[in-house]
Specification:
238 residues; alpha/beta; five-stranded mixed beta sheet; four-stranded parallel beta sheet; 7 helices; elongated; disordered C terminus
Length: 238
Amino acid sequence: MVGWVIPGGGSGWRPRLRVERLMGLAVLAAEVPERRGWDGKGTERGCRAAARQLRRKGCRRVLAPEGFSYWPQLRQAGLSPVWAGGMCAALAGPLAEAALVQRGKDPLQSSVLLRGGRVDQDLFRAALFLCPKVRRLSLWAGEEGEELARYLQRTYGVPMLSPGPGWRPDVTVDLSPVEEGGDLVLCGERPALGALSLTAEKLPDGPDRLSLLALLWETGRVKTDEIEIITSSEGQMT
């Protein structure tokens, strides 16, 4: 079961455990009394106790509020956040298109670079999605990437460019960790989405929304095509 650390009322510091349901998914909530504010040091002891209790109950992953301050304490107990990289990688194509729109670019006149350690399902799906939507597509995924590029060029006639000096794509999408991440880094615990955000209809309030959405996605309660990509009107990506 997945845990959920939430701020609550009451006195003292001892957390109270109860089962909650998020869109039908049962999670074990640990309600930690707020002491001198949720971000105050008085709450740290309760978060440590909540982490121990959740671990004893078999939890390995935990949801927490936005901007949660006590992840080091939870990690020390062997708990980790719900990683959102898998969900975001599955949306690599639509996210790249949305990033172009966010920047005021016409996708049909723009270029995208997809980078990955290999050609996995997510990179392949993103390349197929982008082929009819962008002017130029470039793949950086070793020999497999070169083979896929040739296949796509033969099949779709899309100009495939090799990354190199003097060429800069309009949007770079990384599906595996790199030293200098691109505009969208869609892997790991906390993907970098730039000015984009993700949501879904009737998403419950409380936990960090990206982590909650990832959990609901991986358990099949939210489908990939039900996830909405939101482009912010503020703060264009640079």
